[in-house]
Amino acid sequence: xxxxxxxxxxxxxxxxxxxxxxxxxxxxxxxxxxxxxxxxxxxxxxxxxxxxxxxxxxxxxxxxxxxxxxxxxxxxxxxxxxxxxxxxxxxxxxxxxxxxxxxxxxxxxxxxxxxxxxxxxxxxxxxxxxxxxxxxxxxxxxxxxxxxxxxxxxxxxxxxxxxxxxxxxxxxxxxxxxxxxxxxxxxxxxxxxxxxxxxxxxxxxxxxxxxxxxxxxx
Length: 218
Description:
- This protein is of the alpha/beta class.
- It is built from 7 helices and 9 strands; from the N terminus they run αβαββαββααββααββ.
- It has helices at residues 2-11, 24-37, 73-83, 108-122, 134-140, 163-178, 184-198; strands at 17-21, 41-45, 58-64, 84-97, 102-104, 143-151, 154-155, 204-206, 209-217.
- The strands form 3 sheets. Strands 3-4-9-6 form a 4-stranded mixed β-sheet.
- α2 (24-37) links the parallel β1 (17-21) and β2 (41-45).
- α4 crosses α7 and α6 (163-178) packs antiparallel against α7 (184-198).
- The two termini are 30 Å apart.
């Protein structure tokens, strides 16, 4: 939702953003925000594979942390390729190596929880590290790679970046209990580890490594 808002400001009154997410809650939030700020956003709750896009109708596509959760990313990319106008670009931000996620100092329970997160991702549909294959997939469907760059964030407790992993732990770690990956006492201990890290200004947290790929339809 926040990315769609930023994109809507970029395209201005003369443009339109088509925002897609399979989470109805996210789409509902986006519609409310779009109405509040009077933005030209068409918010659609749908699975990517069910999208029906007009040929040569899009100027560009932005995708972040999305292809990692779909079974056939090539199919999705090919569908968007057909909808792009000649010269249209895709900008993708996806995980390249989620295993780079770690803290210093290392905290036993939190480290165990982070490993369980990665294990749960690898056993779900899709490939959490789909970023490694993006350039190959894009070239196979006929896109020209314009640029690639690694995206790494290092956070300290007093920085805004720290809030992403902190909120992620609070939301996702309890889910791992119901999914059978962790015991509740391990989750409780891991969340205590986070609080301990926050009390030490010298603590650092390495977020998962992402890759940015920009490609053009020629």
